[in-house]
Every structure is written in structure tokens, then in C-alpha cells.
Amino acid sequence: VQLVESGGGLVQPGGSLRLSCAASGFTFSNYAMSWYRQAPGKERALVATITSTDGSTNYADSVKGRFTISRVNAENTVYLQMNSLKPEDTAVYYCHARWMWDYWGHGTQVTVSS
User: How many Å apart are CA 55 and CA 107, to the nearest integer?
Assistant: First the structure.
């Protein structure tokens, strides 16, 4: 089982990034997929979730209206489009799969700084 995140990097405030998470080794379409983030000195926190059934989404209040989670089951991939980025969005972003089991990726660093 693998979840491999990509797309992180350094971006200026107000900029955009698109994170990708490529899944393998399990039946992706059965799993709810989420993005979490962990900033230095803080606990890991849920950012966004997309269900496996009807594709409904849920977001942390801090990212509503700025971030969009999506999935393409045919590609076994989940995305996180991040717009209007703020310095407080700086964190390591993790991909998470949940159904019968829980799987985590290793994370990708996002730094928002001028």
C-alpha cells in the first residue's frame, strides 16, 4: 500500500498550489480520502475530506472557500487545489485513506512566505 503526495513547495502569500496523492495497493474507490496538515509545534489537523460514495466534501473552517478537494477514481488520485494561500497555511500536508483500514502518506511540505 502506498500513498505518495506531490506538488508541495514554496509559494508567496496569495498564490496557489495543487497537491496530488497517488494511491496504490488497495481499492481506492472504496475509501474516503482526506488531506491533513501539521504545522511546526502543532497537532495534525484535518483539512478536507471527500467521500467514496457520492463524492461529497467537507472542509476545515480555516480553508473553506480557498481549498478544493477532488478525486479521480480511474487514476487512483486525490487532489487538493489551494488558492489564496496564507502564511498560516504553512505545514506538512498528508494524504489519508479511510475505510476498513487507515493509510497515510509521508507528507509534502508547503511553505507560504514572501
Answer: 23
